[in-house]
Specification:
The complex is a heterodimer.
Chain A: E1 11-15, H1 24-28, E2 36-42, E3 49-53, E4 56-60, H2 62-67, E5 69-72
Antiparallel strand pairs in A: 1-2, 1-5, 2-3, 3-4
Chain B: E1 5-12, H1 18-26, E2 30-34, E3 41-48, E4 54-59, H2 71-82, E5 89-95, H3 99-111, E6 116-121, H4 126-129, E7 131-133, H5 135-142, E8 146-148, H6 156-160, H7 165-172, H8 207-215, H9 224-227, H10 238-263, E9 264-266, H11 274-282, H12 287-306, H13 308-328, H14 333-350, H15 353-369, H16 371-383, H17 393-398, H18 403-409, H19 416-425, H20 435-445, E10 450-451, E11 455-456, H21 457-483, E12 493-495, H22 504-538, H23 542-545, H24 547-550, H25 558-568, H26 570-577, H27 579-582, H28 589-597, H29 604-612, H30 621-630, H31 643-655, H32 660-670, H33 674-698
Parallel strand pairs in B: 1-4, 1-5, 5-6, 6-8
Antiparallel strand pairs in B: 2-3, 3-4, 7-9, 10-11
Chain lengths: ~80, ~700
């Protein structure tokens, strides 16, 4: 499952970051295998997307969120 | 003990309170310079250690790693790898909330071989967040001094009294030269490639410097492959280098995780989710945009209306001083130069002070609290297609008051390409100095009627002119983003820092720095321009000096003499000289003089016309309007201000670059005359062509 498919409030664990050839900056920001990412919300105008990666709050563009593979952890559906 | 000068660099991720720490350590003793060739500030300050050594602290731009994503971050890579500055040691600032990610940069810097100290900031939040750190163990594992500070809470005077965390930090600085930082990179065995061929630049030990020099070779303008022909046989293209760099990040995170597992504990149940809760409102699809609009409206109102109170005051004081000096000093060249040249120039600089103070108060406040990143988050979708940052909204909107503070406000945009485009396009926004010109011309050519019984046609025209300026700013931004080259692909990865209470002193320092930069940078140029303009308007060949001899009409009044003098000054001659150029736009030399005097400030156009048409009383718009309406163009023999000329003038004022204060500010911000010259010809070119087309169609 791709990061962009997470529901608001849902978390996932990053995997295959090397295989997906993520931009270096994304990996430096903590987007590496085993790290937990939570989808917080979309921007009011549709993009970018707002995530919690590890301990940091980071906004990503749609095309970057489409690159990242995650294993979903919970169902999300938290009130947003 | 012998007193030494030590040079330290302050390095850290953005949003770690790096600048707060810099301010706490150095106070106001700072030097703001520029890195050659790029629009990145070089900021350094000084402080003394207990042992008498003096430290020069260089505040390098914030960056997440030594692999740059912008020109600003490139400065950090280049300074630390080449070390032209001869830096003796580095203070790495980290945010206690994001220690893991911050340590990527830390381990990279340790690998460079510099003496290093890790400064963990925001330790005041540890208790609240349930974070505990085993500092002793961390020091042992990294083999560098580690200090906890709170730049927010630390009092500068605590350092003087010999206690407090800043004092503790300063006291431990000598220790960094005694410890040898733990090395990480050498164990990674990323490549079998022997990098020794770069050895003429670096010593045997500087493996990581060689590695950075190799992997970031285009930043150093070096083609390593050309340096060593043997390499071309190896698969060392961009892609394989990128793979190695990814491996490096993963290995670093493994090391960091191993270190932090032994030293860093978080009690997750204590997590407050404070920032996330506020973001739920401030980034809400309706309330978020609404609050943003309210904030922007407040900023706009403040620089538009609130600033006008002190601006009027400054204006009045200088007028009083000017006439006082004229009354006590003997009339003559020197007095003229002093009052209408120099004094007007200084007034022309100081008049911007209220707007700059107010705008930067808001910008610094929003930046300090962490809201600026939210502006990018909210606005990026709209601005990004035009090559602008979400943050460009602030300068563009401020530009509707005045381009000078607005252009300075572009400083908050991290990406230097987006910053440059914002600086270059902001002057298109309809500033308040254009309003008096618009008002009088609209009153002259647009009938005061209502469309469909409700929409005032004059008001609609004014609205359309605002829209034109904004549209041209966006179109130009789009074109510039295609033309201006950048080595960097635009990835949208934006950190959303935690919300914080602002530190008043940081806001104060930002405002003072901006004011200084303006008054002593752009201010000098503005005064110089003002003196030149004064000279041109008050000097001329022989007819100028004895108007009574040359004027045929013997019933001349003082007003007529003033008009005559302006016509025969050098400026008047210039107005006449450019007449052939502006005739296709429908203008005569009188309007030409108005265009030239507009360089002081666009609204001067109105008072210049008053002078030329001998209206005298400059505040009497009605009188001027009647005079303009009846004015005959000496060339065509018809009325000067026809509908076609009016539209042509409106378009010209909407687009032309006629403000030397703006040009001086662009020069000051970009540190080169290239960009103000480009802006001048680009904007004036567009103005000329659109005014030409409009006039030729409508006449």
């Amino acid at each position: 499952m791709k990061l962009i498919q997470l529901e608001p409030g849902q978390s996932g664990v990053v995997f295959q970051c090397e295989k997906n050839e993520l931009p270096l900056k994304l990996m430096e920001m903590g987007c590496i295998d085993g790290e937990i990412i939570t989808f917080l919300k979309r921007a009011p105008l549709g993009s970018p997307y707002y995530y919690k990666i590890g301990d940091s709050h980071i906004a990503l563009s749609k095309d970057l969120a489409k690159l990242i593979d995650v294993k979903p952890l919970n169902n999300g559906k938290e009130k947003n | 003990m012998e007193r030494k000068k030590i040079k330290l660099a302050l390095v850290g991720n953005p949003n770690t309170g790096k600048t707060s720490l810099f301010n706490k350590l150095t106070g106001l003793h700072k030097k703001i310079g520029n890195y050659p060739g790029i629009t990145v500030n070089r900021i350094s300050g000084f402080f003394k250690l207990e042992n008498g050594n003096e430290v020069e602290l260089i505040d390098l731009p914030g960056t997440y790693s030594l692999h740059p994503n912008s020109k600003d971050e490139e400065v950090v890579l280049k300074e630390l790898v080449s070390n032209h500055e001869k830096i003796d040691g580095i203070l790495v600032v980290a945010d206690v909330n994001n220690l893991k990610r911050n340590m990527i940069l830390l381990t990279e810097i340790m690998d460079l071989g510099y003496p290093v100290m890790l400064v963990i900031n925001m330790c005041d939040e540890m208790k609240k967040k349930g974070i505990s750190i085993d500092i002793d163990k961390l020091e042992k594992l990294l083999n560098i001094p580690v200090v906890l500070i709170s730049a927010k809470k630390a009092k500068a005077d605590g350092a003087k009294k010999g206690k407090g965390k800043i004092y503790h930090l300063k006291k431990r600085i000598p220790e960094i030269f005694q410890s040898k930082p733990q090395q990480f990179f050498k164990n990674y065995n990323l490549t079998h490639l022997n990098l020794d061929f770069i050895k003429d630049k670096f010593s045997e030990k500087e493996l990581y410097k060689k590695w950075l020099f190799f992997t970031e070779q285009n930043k150093f303008n070096k083609n390593i492959l050309a340096l060593n022909p043997l390499l071309s046989e190896l698969p060392f293209d961009k892609k394989s280098i990128k793979k190695l760099l990814q491996k490096e990040v993963i290995k670093r995170y493994q090391d960091i995780n191993r270190i932090l597992q032994q030293t860093y504990m978080v009690d997750k149940s204590r997590a407050t989710g404070f920032t996330e809760r506020i973001d739920r409102i401030l980034l809400h699809r309706f309330w978020g945009l609404f609050i943003f609009a309210v904030i922007m409206f407040t900023v706009f109102q403040s620089i538009f209306s609130l600033a006008s109170i002190p601006m009027d005051w400054i204006d009045t004081q200088f007028t009083i001083l000017n006439s006082y000096l004229k009354s006590v000093l003997p009339s003559g060249q020197i007095t003229g130069l002093l009052t209408d040249g120099i004094l007007s120039g200084i007034a022309g600089v100081l008049i911007f002070v209220p707007q700059i103070v107010i705008l930067f108060f808001f910008i610094a406040l929003l930046e300090e609290m962490g809201y600026m990143s939210r502006i990018v988050f909210l606005m990026d979708k709209i601005m990004q297609p035009f090559g602008l940052s979400g943050k460009s909204v602030v300068p563009l909107l401020s530009g509707t008051a005045c381009a000078v503070p607005a252009i300075m406000g572009a400083r908050t945009i991290e990406n230097s390409k987006e910053r440059l485009i914002t600086i270059l396009t902001t002057p298109f926004m309809t500033c308040s100095a254009r309003l008096p010109v618009y008002t009088i011309i609209i009153a002259l050519i647009i009938p005061d009627i209502k469309l469909f019984g409700i929409i005032n046609l004059q008001g609609l025209t004014l609205f359309f002119l605002y829209f034109l300026g904004f549209a041209m700013a966006l179109i130009s931004a789009f074109l510039l983003s295609k033309i201006i080259k950048s080595n960097y692909k635009r990835f949208f990865i934006l950190e959303m820092p935690e919300y914080k209470l602002p530190i008043p002193k940081n806001i104060y320092i930002t405002v003072v720095d901006k004011l200084k930069a303006f008054v002593f940078g752009a201010g000098k140029i503005i005064v110089a321009f003002s003196i030149i303009l004064w000279f041109l308007a008050t000097h001329g060949p022989k007819e100028f000096h004895h108007p009574e001899k040359y004027m045929k009409n013997f019933t001349q009044t003082q007003k007529d003499i003033t008009a005559y003098k302006l016509e025969h000054s050098y400026l008047g001659m210039m107005g006449k000289t450019i007449e052939p150029v502006i005739r296709p736009l429908g203008y005569d030399w009188k309007i030409g003089i108005g265009l030239l005097t507009s360089f002081a400030a666009r609204e001067v156009f109105v008072s210049t016309l008053s002078t030329i048409y001998s209206v005298g009383d400059q505040d009497n718009d009605q009188l001027l309007k009647d005079k303009m309406a009846n004015e005959i163009n000496h060339f065509t023999g018809k009325k000067t201000f026809t509908f076609a000329v009016g539209i042509s003038l409106l378009l010209f004022y909407a687009f032309a670059m006629q403000c030397f204060s703006t040009l001086a500010t662009i020069k000051n911000e970009t540190k080169t005359w290239k960009w103000p010259i480009v802006v001048f010809f680009y904007m004036t070119g567009i103005a000329y062509i659109s005014a030409l087309i409009a006039y030729q169609i409508l006449k």
